[in-house]
Design a protein that fits this description.
Layout (H helix, E strand, L loop, with lengths): L3 H9 L2 E4 L6 E13 L2 E12 L9 H8 L10 E6 L9 E6 L2 H5 L7 H15 L2 E6 L3 H4 L2 H12 L4 H7 L10 H10 L4 E4 L3 H9 L4 E5 L10 H10 L9
Helix pairs in contact: 6-7
């Protein structure tokens, strides 16, 4: 019979408590994850983490394991990390902090460039031999969530741009925080990173959080009739830095 006593030792070595400004995180991994990219198979290391609401100071990993045992977590948005190569030690490591986008990443929508940015970052990391993609699950619609994102799309259909739509719904342009990702990144790597982004605010938050950025790698994708206004708004109103696609 499989019991708590028999499974915990096997799982313990893959669990780590991560300290943040607010609440502890429970990081688990790595799991070997073979992924097909452009017709070839590559093995990434997959991690995920949980914000541990009930973890108290002094709790052990076994306490956390017991707390979570038998409790489904499908209703909690959990972020992931895909790591490729010797992320801890290699001099050059490329990092993308990618906000979840159901419409772009999953459905392949052309209204934004999110899906293409995710694919481009993954290709670059494979090409360079080392890096990580943080897939941030609580950042849909720049932090407003999927339901309000649908409302924002409908308002954009009426003529508003992305920023105007978010504000019309009572939100700021961008509600995203990278505190949890910063804490996890520090656990996985202490050396500087090459950050794959166009977002000046993201760079500022990471630097304020103590992340050493060696250089920025732009990740612009093709402008089409569908995403042209979206991309233009990011540049003109949200401070994204326009550069030629790498």
């Amino acid at each position: 019979m499989i019991t708590h006593a028999s499974t915990f030792p096997s799982i313990k070595r893959y669990m780590k408590l991560v300290t943040t400004k607010s609440k502890p995180l429970v990081l688990i991994g790595p799991v070997d994850l073979p992924i097909n990219v452009d017709g070839k198979n590559y093995t990434f290391k997959w991690y995920t983490w949980l914000a541990a609401d009930n973890v108290k100071e002094g709790d052990t990993l076994e306490d956390v394991y017991t707390m979570l045992e038998g409790k489904p977590l499908a209703n909690k948005p959990l972020s992931s990390i895909l790591v490729y190569g010797d992320f801890q030690s290699q001099d050059e490591a490329y990092v993308r902090l990618h906000s979840i986008c159901h419409t772009g990443d999953v459905f392949g929508s052309l209204l934004c460039d999110c899906g293409e940015q995710f694919k481009s970052a993954r290709r670059l990391i494979i090409k360079e031999g080392c890096g990580a993609i943080f897939y941030l699950a609580d950042q849909e619609g720049r932090g407003i969530g999927l339901y309000h994102k649908a409302m924002a799309y409908l308002l954009q259909k009426e003529g508003l741009d992305t920023v105007e739509a978010n504000k019309a719904l009572g939100f700021e342009d961008d509600l995203r925080s990278y505190d949890e990702a910063i804490s996890v990144l520090k656990v996985l790597r202490s050396l500087p990173i090459n950050l794959i982004t166009n977002n000046a605010n993201k760079i500022e938050q990471l630097k304020e959080g103590g992340i050493k950025i060696n250089r920025r790698i732009p990740v612009w994708c093709e402008t089409t009739e569908y995403n042209e206004r979206y991309i233009e708004t990011k540049i003109k109103r949200s401070g994204h830095m326009k550069e030629t696609k790498r």
